[in-house]
Amino acid sequence: MKSPMTRGAVGLIVSLSTLWSVPSHALTLDETIQRTQAAHPQFKAYSALQRASRADVDTLSLAPPIILNGEADNLIGNGSYQQAAQAEYTLALSSVIELGGQRRARHQQALSAYELTDAQSKSRTLSLLSEVTRAYIATLASQERLRIAEESLRLNKQTLAVVEKRHQRGAAPKNDQLRAEAALERSASAVEQARLQLDNDIYRLTSYWMTSGEPRGELSLTGNLFDLSTPPGQFPQRLSAVDDALVLEVYASEARLAEADSTLIQARNAGSVEWRVGVTHFAESREEALSAAASIPLFSGRRGSSAASAARQRAVASEYEYQAHKRDVTQRLHTAWSALQQHSASVNTYQQKIIPLLKRAMDEVEQGYAQGRYRYQDWHIAREELIEAERQLISSASAALISRTLIEELTARAVSNQTTQDTPQ
Predict the structure, then answer these.
(1) CB neighbours (10 Å) of residue 112?
(2) C-alpha distances in angstroms, 72 versus 75, 90, 282?
(3) Where does the record locate the signal sequence feature (predicted)?
(4) CA atoms of 95 and 102, how far apart (whole Å)
(5) Separation between Cα atoms, residue 93 and residue 341, nearest integer Å
(6) CA nearest 17: which of 139, 133, 144?
(7) What are the phi and psi torsion angles at 76 (to 5°)?
(8) pLDDT tens across 19-76, in order?
(9) What does the pLDDT look like over 207-245, one tens digit per residue?
């Protein structure tokens, strides 16, 4: 069977991957997810654990075996027992009759253990793919920061050229030229730092599907970091999806397993009847006789009462743990939803208002400086304010996308195709 949270599930991070699925030679988020699923060893480990747990269900659902016993008494001795003259040969069948529904309880316990393994695999899969998505966002942001650093370097080169011309004409002091040269060196250093950070982020991202020794080569990402067209929605709408959270399904599965353990212990307290039926051949008289035996444990219910009580209390504790973690997930969801709203609003403000105004201000100061109406310091401040605003835009956009990824992870509205496997009956 499938748990309710997986019915109709679609690929992980669908809403995010649509932003970066533009055909290009550069790497998209969708390609990143596919490469990770194909090569990351954890996915193979999850599949192996699920197969092992499924095999446990098949094994533990079997009835007790029927055993064929063979015995030979008085086979070798002295006196009248020489040459097996007094030997007795017995061929018997034996088995166990489980009372109290033990087989059914054992099957349910194994099935609950499988469901827990399955839920853990799904939760870890979603967590891993969300981690990959966050790494992709961070790398895309670093790529944008490198672009801004290179733009700053270009502006500083232009600025230095203008300042040098004014200084040569005697319209600007030597101090302005020296400060412009220092600003150019700082921007060149910033480009180098941004390039190193991007290389590090690319290495981290590709490590999800490449080994440490594989050459990375040239790699770039494609996507619009600033496309936040999907509204965050209202929190009550998000809250209704908390019950589908895969991390909560793990705790729910643990609670069901604890309950199944309790049921199995109670069933075992009913005891089992061991039986044995056989035929004995007497060599001396050449006659056969039928034998039968049965053993029933006494006071087994009293002996197992403490274990049953402990199992019940563990089941109760698991239910309380589920409720506690549900509150934690709700709080984390609200924090992520609130952060998404804040960062989305910030992106909109920077794009629509702050950056356009700062561009106009820089153009005004640039023209005014060339005409001698503004100081070099005014031009430098206007340029740095614009660059800093663009950096803030990148930070807000990446934070908004990361918050949205966390919301998807917590609500399990999108899960990997690898996690929609049937549970054995």
Answers:
(1) 22
(2) 6, 6, 10
(3) 1-26
(4) 15
(5) 72
(6) 133
(7) -135, 135
(8) 444 434 588 889 999 999 898 888 888 888 888 888 988 888 888 888 999 888 877 7
(9) 999 877 777 777 888 888 888 766 555 665 556 556 666
